[in-house]
Amino acid sequence: MKKQRRALQEASISFLDVISCGFGAIVLLLVIAKVGDPAALDEAEKQLLGSAKDYQQRLFDIRGESVILDERLKSRQQQLSELTERIARLKAKLASVAKQSNQLSQSQSREKEQLQLVLQVLSEEMERLLGPEFEQQNQLIGGIPADSDYIIFVIDNSGSMKSYAWEKLKVEMVNILDIYPEVKGLQVMNCEGKYMFQANRDQWLIDSPAIRKGIIAKLDNWNALCSSNPAPGIEKAIRNFYRPDRKISIYYMGDDFLDRSIRRVVRVVDKLNKANRDSDRLVRIHAIGFPLPVYFPPKGTVSPQAIKFANLMRELSYNNGGTFIGLNSLN
Question: Which residues on neighbouring strands pair with residue 125, listed in sequence order?
């Protein structure tokens, strides 16, 4: 039996695989290989690297600025928190001050009503005892003659007064002004004769509710200090303001006397405020004395300056038709 010969194939599968791999390798080489001008490619690569560095540097700068801004924001937030707390504390203090002011106002109103009631009762009792035809010869309120048309305050605004008695001094000045519902003129100076209102020196302040409030308000920032000697201020007040047709009262307000001689001050004032033909002094001189904590050491002894002040004011007021009131408390 004759065997058949197998037909030869023109291309086998293995050959096609080899040819395909060859073409793939050529394509891969073309992809990997740099096509074009090498110098241009290097320049493009350098530009890309430079751009990448620039962007990276900008990123670092932005991150740094972000950190700085975060720190500033935290600082501002902390400041805002502190300011908020401070505002809350100030509001609380303001509410406390307003409450105290309201209580003080109510207390003063009650005291004023009580004083008015007492005055009315005393007036009725005097009329009952003395009869309706009796005419009072002098106007006394709380022991102080209130017959003057002009009032001058001579104030010891030394350090001790401003440190301890200043708030009480304001209250007493208001009380004194209340004794005189209306006067023709007011003036305020310290014990050295320096005016509170320099624009109105040697002139009367025309009395009005606004002027009275302005005097009390000005006390808070009046810094012309004096040496706790009443003679210069009283002397200037008499020389600059006395006229025969004026009824003037001087109110000296202080706490101590630092000069050596009481007698010298008394002689200076007596010589200037000499009696006229009617045996009255040219002006009345009243005095208000303020006690201070520094005058009362633990053993309870009073300082020599306080004793000298009380003796001086008692003699000055007695000799010059006035009244000396020594306060025993700053409350």
Answer: none
Spell out the residues 6+ positions from residue 4 whose beta carbon is closer than 8 angstroms to its own. Answer: none
Burial of 330: CB neighbours in 10 Å, binned 0-12, 13-18, 19+: middle
Per the CB < 8 A criterion, the answer to whether 139 and 145 are in contact is: yes
List the one residue out of 292, 284, 289 whose CA is nearest residue 325.
289
CATH superfamily of 141-326: von Willebrand factor, type A domain (3.40.50.410)
Tokens 């801004």, located at residue: 69
Express each pLDDT in 232-277 by its tens digit: 999 999 999 999 889 999 999 998 888 878 899 999 898 888 876 6
Which tens digit of pLDDT belongs to each residue from 55-92? 888 888 888 888 888 888 998 999 999 999 999 999 99
- What phi, psi does 153 have (nearest 5°)? -95, 125
Q: What is the DSSP letter of 195?
A: B
Which tokens sit at 33?
Answer: 């290989």
